């Protein structure tokens, strides 16, 4: 099953109806803060979660909708192919509204099975990475129980509850005050002991050496692919309550490390945030992989988790998703525009398995912000710029067309030069002018006949740089926006794209 389209009405940041055409591909989303990218994450998460529990739309309804429209919101997801591999022009629709649970035909458990993977991870689950070093020791307990494994659920391990729920039950039992004979210490001890036993029994199973349930069974192979050359062992010190049942202690998860086969005596010194992030994400992805994989619908949604990752972890993670989660439909969001642009121009360039969207926050006529969603329709993001230029040109906005043509021109040159053509480098990349790349390509052509740049295109570009590609990107009242020249620029940039492909 692959998601073809998502339709959301009046949910969280989404005001009115928004459609996102996924077309069965993986989705990479750039979004400003407050633009709705996390609302997309929670909309899909709630959509799947609603197949196993009641969904209260009142709690997620957009707060700015008019009174007459309240209660009419929904989340619709269209799958193509469906669970049986059938394809239709519109796809098979599943929906959840305020008054109905997730709708599916009798016997169709595909949506319910998908949520069992617990494959939705947001940056909030990784926040504890920044403060897990306690008393010169690393303690992964909070990171695991309240973060990356908070929603982990397995009948064989946690029963009918999530791991985080089991811990919350125990904390509430400890915190519950005595009320004379109505709730005395004997009753409290019984409740606390039962809750603690349930949690300790479940959590301890994840650390048993040699057990198929061991937390590192799938996590270590994924961690190896991050390239940090570290092998880890985890130990859980079972939680216990104090004598008067007013608090608890020893809830620690300690870590032992080998680096290139050598034991590291002080892990808290060796493990920086990059390595800790890789460990946390590997554990999370490993626990997703430990679930039964033979189900029709497999979604993996990573919401802004690149926040805590440096470039040395970001690229390996993308490769891990390709190698280990090829059967999943992957959704990634980020607020990091330079990273998004880099991925667009390199990793996703002409990659037919991915689509890109851009979310922006804009103030509505009523004064509140709403998401503005742009689909990047072409897998070639250079072509996207050219198409935007053509669209503005067709609608009579010559200057906007010129700006997008300039962007396409720069994109073509930089992509072609990357790893191939020597270019004079400036530590401040904002000072690396387009002319520098263009001159480097022309020089490269003279010594490398394999370059497809033709004399005719070279002459045309040199001519249009002074008429379109430079002046229309600036305010210059002495430069004319000549329609014929812009039309010529559209033609020659398309030619250049082909010649330097």
TrEMBL record:
<dbReference type="InterPro" id="IPR003395">
    <property type="entry name" value="RecF/RecN/SMC_N"/>
</dbReference>
<feature type="domain" description="RecF/RecN/SMC N-terminal">
    <location>
        <begin position="3"/>
        <end position="342"/>
    </location>
</feature>
<dbReference type="GO" id="GO:0006302">
    <property type="term" value="P:double-strand break repair"/>
</dbReference>
<dbReference type="InterPro" id="IPR027417">
    <property type="entry name" value="P-loop_NTPase"/>
</dbReference>
<dbReference type="Pfam" id="PF02463">
    <property type="entry name" value="SMC_N"/>
</dbReference>
<dbReference type="GO" id="GO:0000731">
    <property type="term" value="P:DNA synthesis involved in DNA repair"/>
</dbReference>
<protein>
    <submittedName>
        <fullName>Recombinational DNA repair ATPase RecF</fullName>
    </submittedName>
</protein>
């Amino acid at each position: 099953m692959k998601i073809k389209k998502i339709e959301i009405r009046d949910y969280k940041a989404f005001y009115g109806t928004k459609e996102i055409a996924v077309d069965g591909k993986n989705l990479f989303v750039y979004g400003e803060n407050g633009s709705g990218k996390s609302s997309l994450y929670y909309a899909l998460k709630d959509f799947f979660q609603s197949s196993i529990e009641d969904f209260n739309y009142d709690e997620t309804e957009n707060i700015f909708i008019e009174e007459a429209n309240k209660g009419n919101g929904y989340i619709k997801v269209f799958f193509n192919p469906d669970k049986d591999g059938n394809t239709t022009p519109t796809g098979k629709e599943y929906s959840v509204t305020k008054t109905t649970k997730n709708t599916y035909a009798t016997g169709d458990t595909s949506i319910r099975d998908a949520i069992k993977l617990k494959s939705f991870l947001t940056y909030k689950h990784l926040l504890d990475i920044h403060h897990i070093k306690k008393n010169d020791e690393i303690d992964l307990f909070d990171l695991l129980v309240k973060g990356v494994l908070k929603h982990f659920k397995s009948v064989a391990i946690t029963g009918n509850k999530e791991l985080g729920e089991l811990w919350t039950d125990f904390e509430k039992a400890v915190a519950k005050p005595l009320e004379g004979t109505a709730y005395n210490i004997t009753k409290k001890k019984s409740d606390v002991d039962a809750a603690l036993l349930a949690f300790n029994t479940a959590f301890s199973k994840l650390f048993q050496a040699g057990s198929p349930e061991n937390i590192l069974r799938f996590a270590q192979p994924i961690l190896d692919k991050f390239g940090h050359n570290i092998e880890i062992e985890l130990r859980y010190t079972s939680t216990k309550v104090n004598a008067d049942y007013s608090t608890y202690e020893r809830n620690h998860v300690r870590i032992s490390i080998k680096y290139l086969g050598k034991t590291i005596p002080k892990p808290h010194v060796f493990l920086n945030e990059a390595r800790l992030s890789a460990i946390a994400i590997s554990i999370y992805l490993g626990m997703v992989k430990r679930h039964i994989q033979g189900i029709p619908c497999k979604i993996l949604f990573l919401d802004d988790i690149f926040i805590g990752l440096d470039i040395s972890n970001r690229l390996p993670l993308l490769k891990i998703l390709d190698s280990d989660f090829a059967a999943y439909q992957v959704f990634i969001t980020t607020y990091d525009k330079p990273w998004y642009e880099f991925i667009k121009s390199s990793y996703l360039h002409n990659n037919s398995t991915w689509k890109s969207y851009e979310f922006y926050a804009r103030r509505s006529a009523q004064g509140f912000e709403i998401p503005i969603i742009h689909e990047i329709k072409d897998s070639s993001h250079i072509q996207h710029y050219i198409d935007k230029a053509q669209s503005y040109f067709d609608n009579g906005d010559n200057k906007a067309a010129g700006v997008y043509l300039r962007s396409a021109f720069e994109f073509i040159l930089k992509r072609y030069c990357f790893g191939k053509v020597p270019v004079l480098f400036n530590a401040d990349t904002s000072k690396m002018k387009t002319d520098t790349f263009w001159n480097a390509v022309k020089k490269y052509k003279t010594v490398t006949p394999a370059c497809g740049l033709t004399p005719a295109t070279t002459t045309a570009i040199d001519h249009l740089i002074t008429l379109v590609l430079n002046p229309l990107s600036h305010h210059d009242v002495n430069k004319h926006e000549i329609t014929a020249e812009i039309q010529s620029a559209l033609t020659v940039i398309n030619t250049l794209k082909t010649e330097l492909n």
